[in-house]
Amino acid sequence: MKPSPLQLGVLVSGSGTNLQSILDAALEGRINVDVRVVISNRKDAGALERARRAGVPAVVISHKQYDNRESFEEALIQALRQHDVEWVALAGFMRVLTSHFLHAFPQRVVNIHPALLPSFPGVHAQRQALEYGVKFSGCTVHFVDEGTDTGPIIGQAVVPVLDSDDEESLTAKILEQEHRLFSSVLQLLAEGRIVRDGRRVKILGPH
């Protein structure tokens, strides 16, 4: 008997290529994930149309319509709960979440970041990596805490940084790995194989 799928809500702000990779993997049966709702803080986010094409509810909750972060986050929480969401994935969501949101989904919010954390947190991570002169970069999936890209690391993927790379080419290389890594981590979560031990995250073997 197949276990129940991971009931996932996805928060987005942009074009939604990571969302698309999750939707495709779920549709093809490569991950046991049910995307229950996609929420964007921007009505022009391309990710919303990707959700609609996949038959997934697409909701706009603009942060500009709320007086403070807590009221905005409360609207997010209520929308996610209305769709029976258990886990939340941030796929290019460009708002920092506070403890108010994180307490509603304790240790059940994950994010993908285009760098090998703890190096180069925040925005323009690929540019930061190039300016620093690193020879390797990549992406990280991590649990979300109240800092900026500071939560416990679940998984990482590495790409070489070539002398010929610019921000565009490095972004493209990393994005390819993001699509693979995010889906694989979500499948591990669906299988109950990820365990937190303080800052360290352990991945259990197959059941």
How would you explain this protein's 3D organization?
Helix 1 (17-27) packs parallel to helix 6. The protein has one domain: Rossmann fold, CATH 3.40.50. It has a 7-stranded mixed beta sheet, with helices on both faces. A two-stranded antiparallel sheet has the order 8-9. With 207 residues, it is of the alpha/beta class. The mean pLDDT is 97. The chain contains 6 helices and 9 strands, in the order E-H-E-H-E-H-E-H-E-H-E-E-H-E-E. The protein has helices spanning 17-27, 46-53, 69-82, 99-104, 125-132, 167-190, and strands spanning 6-12, 33-40, 58-60, 87-90, 109-113, 136-143, 153-160, 194-197, 200-203.
Q: For the largest sheet, list the strands in their spatial order.
A: 3-2-1-4-5-6-7
Class from helix and strand fractions: alpha/beta
Query: From the 3D coordinates, which CATH architecture would you assign?
Result: 3-Layer(aba) Sandwich
Oligomeric category:
single chain
Name given to the CATH homologous superfamily: Formyl transferase, N-terminal domain
- What order do the SSEs take from the amino end to the carboxyl end, as H and E? EHEHEHEHEHEEHEE
Number of strands: 9
**Binned strand content:** 15-25%
Classified by CATH, the class is: Alpha Beta
Please, how many domains? Answer: 1
Shape: globular
Question: What can be said about the biggest beta sheet?
Answer: 7 strands, mixed
* End-to-end CA span: 14 Å
